[in-house]
Amino acid sequence: MATSLRVVSPAEVRQLCIKQDPVDPDTLIKTKVIVDEVRVRGDAALLEYATKFGDIQAGQSHIVQKADLKKAFDGLPQEQRDLLERTANRIRSFAEAQLQAVKETQVTVPGGTAGHTISPVECAACYAPGGRYPLPSSVLMTVVTARVAKVEKVYVASPKPSQVTLAAAYVAGADMLIQVGGAQAIAAMAYGTDTIPMADAVVGPGNKFVTAAKQLVAGRVAIDTLAGPSECLVIADDSADPAIVAADLLAQAEHDDDARAILIALNSSIIDKVNAEIAEQLKTLPTAEVAKNALKNSFAVVADNIDAAIKLSDLVAPEHLEVHVRDAYQYKNNFRHYGGLFLGNHSAEVLGDYGAGPNHVLPTRGAARASGGLSVFTFLRVRTWLRVDDLPEVREVAKDAVALARIEGLEGHARAAEKRISEVEPAPQPVVPLDRPLPLHVPEDSVLQFALPKGRMEEEILGLLGDAGIKITIPQRGYRPAISITGVDVKLLNPRNVTQMLHNGSRDVGFSGADLVSELDCHLELMLDTGLSPVKIVAAAPEAFLTRDLQLPKINRPYLIATEYGNLTQKWIKSKGLEARVVLSRGATEVFPPEDADFIVDNTATGSTLKANKLHIIDTLMTSSTGFWANPKALQNP
């Protein structure tokens, strides 16, 4: 048996730290038999194995109810009750701080909103070792943390639980305790039996059979980590106290024969001093036999400087990392891989073990490269959601989805995305062949008065007419274009004026958006919906003004709405039963909130301007596109 750390070279450290599977194949095979039996036969198999391995006596109940947990607590000396409660409170405070660090969120995405929610699993099962050293501290670490995460049902499994373990389960808030250990307990918790609830998360340290069982049920349930033998790595310079370093390494070595203690020293004399202290302290350590066996797995290495020491530590990725160097805190962010970090000579790893606050259930044997220790996050699910309510704006995303789906050969996916595109891209309307008589009544020797809107719709309409063989020439800075149809007079007007003049009869036919026809309450006949310039008239509000679920908040005054659609907005206000006042705007309506209006009613084609101004669509009043309209008096009588 070893009484000191063997010294290795930096080159040897890599070989010593080659990642091994957390469970050897032989143990995994044996464990699978037990797990499968409990999965298939439930309580019958569980009790058979529990009796066979000495967890309980034949006929003994395997469940300790909450009332009996309380009796165990009440039967402890006052000082032990106080001890458990103080420790639980410190663990709880740290876990609550962690919980505050993760929040639900939402962001604006093309066509709508996306976000994530934070919610706990419904049921958690917490394993606490029995064996040589029962760990009531692990009960506190796991159960308290699950309760802070707001898990609805939490219970413990621990073989041959001591009174303190039962009391710890009560203090931590467990619903019950199962007096069964090993692979049979893990299987029962993962799959459920008639007497044991099926858990959604199974956590806590254990022996190799517990770890093997967790590996087998992972995916069926969430697990914390596949814990192996405990380990501690200490980095020390000449400011470190050799007696303290030796004590901390032995504290880890006494866990079990497979534990590992590692020292990275910045000069060789530190190793000599620490080894002398280890030999001396072993003489009076009650667990010396176990620690000596563990020292056979342990080693020391000299690093040229702190940067080299950090690289060696990251290579090991230890469960516990203690930094006993000058100004240790300055290196906090330099380390990349560890389970728990303890900075400075006074920051003993054992303080973390016994409830300073951070959790002591940590990844071992290099697993810290990929995961952290147990925390409230272990019991939380981060789930995303997506809400699309602006189909024109999501059109590009849908088209990309179609293209990617077809690249991947998933035609059903592509067609599902195309359904969304078809809702905002109506099939092309047939062009009215204007070289044939239209159903218009134009008196002999009269001229057909045609109104053409200038601005946004002008170019698209000219293209449409061009496709129909009608040529319109617009002189520079002129508003009376020439048209290649005899007997037609064309005037280029503001879109709103086009609609008004069609309504009052000064123009016979013209192009206008359906939104303006409705807004101005005009009585016109739609001859053709061109499908051009599609827009939606929407109510949109600053996200900061809305409630958490993106609804209008209740306020103690009328809402103030900015819009150029006064008539449509008043109808919408009445239909919604809102108390609101309207401020009429002309252009750039989106700049009114938040100082000059609570929200707006405006038209949008893609929603990009609204999005750029952090406005969220709360309702759609109507959809609109460019139509070819006629004054009813210009139509022939039937």
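(ticket continues) Second input and output from the same batch:
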Amino acid sequence: SDVYKRQVSTQSTWGLSKSFMVVLFSELADADSLLRRVVEGCYMMSSVMFIFSLAGLKQPETSRRGVFFGIMGMIIAIVSTTFLPEFHNEFTKLAVAMIPGACIGTIMACMVNMLEVPQMIASLHSFVGIAATLVGFSNYFLLRSAPSSVLRDIETYVGIFIGIVTFAGSVIAAMKLAGIGGESFGGAVILFGNLRHVLNATAAFGAIVAGIFFCMDDSQVWGLIVNVILGTFLGFHMVIAVGAADMPVIISMLNSYSGWATAASGFLLNNNLLVITGAVVGSSGAILSYIMCTAMNRSFANVLLSGFGTQVAEQGPAKEIKKIASNMINVDEVYKMVDKASNIIIVPGYGMASAKAQIEVGKIAINLAKRGKKVRFCIHPVAGRMPGHMNILLAEARVPIKMMYELNHINPEFKSADLVFLIGANDTANPEALNKASPIYGMAVCNVWEAKNVIVLKRNRQGVGFAGIDNPMFDYENTRMFLGNARENCANLLQLIEGRGKYEAPEVKLQIEHVEEKKDTFDEEKKEDLSKHKQIIIIGVPKEIMKGEKRIALIPKTIIKLRKLGFGIKVEKGAGMAAGIYDQEFEEAGAEVVEPDKIWSQSQIVIKIKEPTLHPVLNVHEAKLADGLMLLVCNIDPSR
């Protein structure tokens, strides 16, 4: 029996080996089939990479990893495509298509700033839409002589329709976000009044009818032409009627559309990678749109078909807020409130982005955190012009990710906050969301009014948000208005926090007397006749011309000490204005205020803070001007 078993086992093993060799050699004999399977495997790997990319982009901590996975997935997809049999080694055509595209993309990425990211993303969505449309037309003309297929006709028609709607809508969204056409175009533009819904419905119905006729007889190209015309009208008309407040939803919606357009192209090209990737992008964009609509207490259809103010709210008793005559404060009062607070929450809005104040805001937060204060950011889901807009701006300002909190996590913390900074936000922190008579009733908002004190940074008191309604919180007793340009106001506050401003906050009488005594001593030094001191060496102090630098190398008090040591001082006219020091103060300290050219031609030593650069008045590089000096004292960046 053992011999019998051994024979059966040997025969079975040989049979399996023989079958495996037959399959292997048959696959090797059909090289095209083998290559296609390898490419399909690479496509599957790319799809997994794209899914990992989306998973990584879910959180700021893993966003870099997500971007890396996305890049690797795209590289694998492009390289593996060149191994397809139908590619025919057409590397020249591939280069003609890829090199200009890579150059355009690189230039766009290098030139765009963080404020312009939303319109750039909208424009990139338009590229996906027009690509899907062109793929649909090319597939139609290539297979026109092939036997008719209703399924193929449906794929072609739907792919072109989704692509052209995405393209038209994305172009209008990009123009709105970029401010092309003025402020009126940036808001909700209603072209046909109450007839707009009827026109949209008619266009959609016409597209369906044209699609039915096209599928019945795909030799009639007019069906596709009608499809493009009606799809362009729908994309244009629906997006142009959307106001600026709903732009975050529109951006994510167009992202979803671009995904479905990609999936449609995948069906047309029989490409699994495009189908999987498009489905993932389309579904994630739709989910994100739903989340943001929920945050605004609005339906997706309402965003597409109307703007703020068109909803019928339940009528209820309107809250009467006692108007405060004047609750405006200056930077010194803001600093006092900040100095006393230990628990601070900052709520940024689109106003911060438009004022480009994120760098100053980030520095303020980091400086306060170093002082031992508890500082956090509250990020509203629809703050800014696209999902994650505030996170991107704060990341640019080097704000630690641990400082950023989502609305639902930090909203209960406002009750225990000593101070809240509301920077350029209106609707996202409007208590009218609790009022049934308000058009934004039910919208999730930041409950900033629950804090002990609130400081609102706005350009002016009369301005309203995208919803077009006033914010009664501005008149609450615990609210103070810090009006003006947000960037300038934050920069002034940052100077005080860093100790570079004029503000002094003596706490006891003894300190006041000491300060006054020091001032008197300084005044006596200024009254002393400094002309008796010989000027052995002349020191020149030029104006700092590097952007953002407000300091000056020598202050009047130091100049007096140098004059007593026998140094002559020449200060460039207007050099101390940015630091709040007038030319008269330098002259009283014994310095001579001169024109820029005399600083470099009549001094042996020049002292400045920043590194040498091109002088805007003399039109000569400061390094060249320093050739005739005995010594140039300045900071030098070794990396430059």
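Agent notes: Residues 1-10, 307-325, 502-524 have pLDDT under 50 and may be disordered. The first helix runs from residue 2 to 29. Closing as not reproducible unless the customer responds.
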